[in-house]
Amino acid sequence: MPPTFPINRVGQEQSTARRLALDGDQGSDQIDPMNLLRLTGRLVNLYSGLVLFGASMAMLVEARLGLMPWDVLHQGISRHTGWSLGTTVIVVGFVVLLLWIPLRERPGFGTLSNVVVIGLALDAFVHLLPAPSGLAARIALVVGGIVLNAFATLLYLNARMGSGPRDGILTGLLRLLRHRRVPAGALKVAIEVAVVAVGWLLGGTVGIATVAFALGVGPMIQLLSAVFPVLALTEREPAQKHESLSGIGSDLVEVRVTKSQPVTVGGRE
C-alpha cells in the first residue's frame, strides 16, 4: 500500500519521557508546562491516529470488497486459527517485531502501542459498525475507509514516536541493501505482493478494495496534507533526535508530502 513511515535510524539511548517534560535550561526538577503540553499533544496524535487506523481497517472488513494488503494475510491466518482479526493483527505484529532483531531496528513507544492498540480498535469497530446492505453503501464504506486511513496515518506520523512494526521490515531491508540501490517503492511492492499472495492462499479476501487502497491512500495523504497544513510532514535534519517514551532515541527523517515529491507512508505498517 502506498504509505512509507519516516526512516527509523538507530540512535543511542537517550532520556525518558520525564526529560521531555523537564525544563533542561534551568537544570531543575520543575516540570516545564510547554514541554508537557507538547508531549500531551504527541500522545493525543499517537493514540487517536491508532484508534482511527483500526476503524478504517474495520470499514474495509465490513464492506466485503477486499482488504488492505497486510489484512489479507491477517484474515487468512484468522480463518485457520479461530482468532479474531484484531487478535491476529496483534500476534503478527509481535512476530514481525522479532524480525527487527537481525535487521537492527529498534522500536519506539509508538511502535509498541501500534502493535496493541490497532488490533483492539479493529475488533471493537468490527462489532460496532453496521453491515452495509447494498453495493453503493459498501463502496462508500471503502472510500470512507481510505480517507480515514490517510488521516489516521498523518496523525500517527506526526506523533514521531516510532514507525510501525511492518514498516520497520522495509526500512531495515533498505539499509541492508543500500549498496545495491534497491528502490524503496519496488521493495515495498514486492513485500506486499508476497504478503497478499500468502494471505490469499490462506483464504484472505482480495478484491477491488485491495487495489483501490493500494493506489488511493498515498494521493489521499498528499491531499489531506494540503487541506490540513498542521498535519503535513515536514523535512527535518537527519541528526535531530526525537525521544520516545521508551527512552530509546532514534533519528527520524521525514519528507514533506508534495505533488513533486510523492512518497509512501503507512500508519500501521
In short:
By secondary structure, this protein is mainly α.
Written description of the protein model:
This protein has helices spanning 17-21, 33-63, 69-81, 85-103, 109-128, 135-159, 165-176, 184-201, 208-227; strands at residues 7-13, 241-243, 248-253. It is built from 9 helices and 3 strands; from the N terminus they run βαααααααααββ. With 269 residues, it is mostly helical.
Shape: globular
User: For this entry, what is the oligomeric state of its chains?
Assistant: single chain
Gyration radius, to the nearest Å? 18 Å
The N- and C-terminal alpha carbons lie at a distance of 9 Å
Which spans of ≥5 residues are poorly predicted at pLDDT below 50? 4-28, 234-267
Q: Numbering strands along the chain, what is their spatial order in the largest sheet?
A: 1-3-2
Biggest sheet, open or closed, and with what strands and sense?
3 strands, antiparallel
How many individual helices?
A: 9
Topology:
Elements: E1 7-13, H1 17-21, H2 33-63, H3 69-81, H4 85-103, H5 109-128, H6 135-159, H7 165-176, H8 184-201, H9 208-227, E2 241-243, E3 248-253
Antiparallel strand pairs: 1-3, 2-3
Helix pairs in contact: 2-5, 2-6, 3-4, 3-8, 4-5, 4-7, 6-9, 7-8
What are its keywords?
9 helices; 61% helix; disordered C terminus; three-stranded antiparallel β-sheet; 6% strand; 269 residues; mainly alpha
